[in-house]
Amino acid sequence: MGGLVPAGRRGEGPRRAPGPRAREDRGARGDARRERSLSSAGGRDPDGSRPPAHAAPPASLSGDRPLRGRNAAPPKGVGHEHDTDPAGTGGLMKIGIIGAGNIGGNLTRRLTALGHEVAVANSRGPETLTALAQETGATPVTVDRAAQGAEIVVVAIPFKNVPDLPEGLFDGAAPGVAVIDTGNYYPRRRDGRIAGVEDEGLTESRWTERQLGRPVIKAFNGTYAEDILDRHRPAGAADRIALPVAGDDEAAKKAVRDLIEELGFDTVDSGGLDDSWRQQPDTPVYGLREGIEGVTRALAEASPVRPEAFRG
Ligand SMILES: NC(=O)c1ccc[n+]([C@@H]2O[C@H](COP(=O)([O-])OP(=O)(O)OC[C@H]3O[C@@H](n4cnc5c(N)ncnc54)[C@H](OP(=O)(O)O)[C@@H]3O)[C@@H](O)[C@H]2O)c1
């Protein structure tokens, strides 16, 4: 594997999503967009930090499992049939979103715009989510209600807070619920040192899965939050970007890939959760805005060595 870093990752200067304090004040998407443009900064990663240089060159990989790109089906809009339709709702799903910040908030916006029934929760309670509810039509709920009846649940909270989520969170979820983990471990800036990652060598999503006690699918972790609103494209568009998706449960992974494609992005199967170091912070694919080919190449170029800047 060469050291190729596809064009557009480092030098393009993608914009930064609004920080939590700015978010509290915004009441409408227009405000959010204004904040994003005000906070624009070059060379930022999806979580808003400046990416350090790679600490290690890409390792030579033997026995790579296939990284499969996918020719997306046409995006499904409101009322279109979804591949998985267990509830018989014509493709519209019940989706729970835990975390209403940069990622959770924008997923709430897009998924409601597509017609899905979204319940959204944060740590402070539903009464603090009235502006987002009015804007989107999502239902604000307490965390312990977020997964009720849900076919897909998105966990979009800071990594270190995952163990705080209530036990039995998924008890009332739909059978076979797919759980999306958007998280990244930022030991120095936010999360502190987490032994399971540092000492046991668990991938970030494997650690999260253990905290939650159920399988997760890793997706959106390297996606700029604003791209969820601004960079979706119809299938086949020349500038449609692809997102890597990792996980062990093939049925859940398919459901998540279908949803992402409906959201307006191609997907690349990046393997199982133990392979998901390939898309963790500071890897070539993290923050990459390229199509299936570029994403597949970037995943193959990743190093399993955790960069020094991302050690606690
Ligand atoms: N920002 C990005 O562009 C981006 C991109 C890809 C991945 N990620 C990753 O995705 C995750 C979320 O990032 P973010 O930027 O969206 O975070 P954020 O803007 O800080 O928002 C975090 C959200 O999580 C909620 N929360 C925190 N602890 C909670 C708990 N115990 N129970 C329920 N809700 C809780 C917060 O609620 P309160 O406000 O009420 O506390 C808030 O709504 C992180 O792991 C991050 O690294 C972020």
From TrEMBL:
Region (Disordered): 1-89
Domain Pyrroline-5-carboxylate reductase catalytic N-terminal: 94-185
Ranges annotated as biased composition (Basic and acidic residues): 9-37
InterPro entries the UniProt entry points to: NAD(P)-bd_dom_sf, P5C_Rdtase_cat_N, STEAP_metalloreductase
Transmembrane segments annotated in the record for this chain: none
Oxidoreductase among keywords: yes
Keywords in alphabetical order: Oxidoreductase
Protein name as catalogued: NAD(P)-binding domain-containing protein
The organism of origin for this protein: Streptomyces yangpuensis
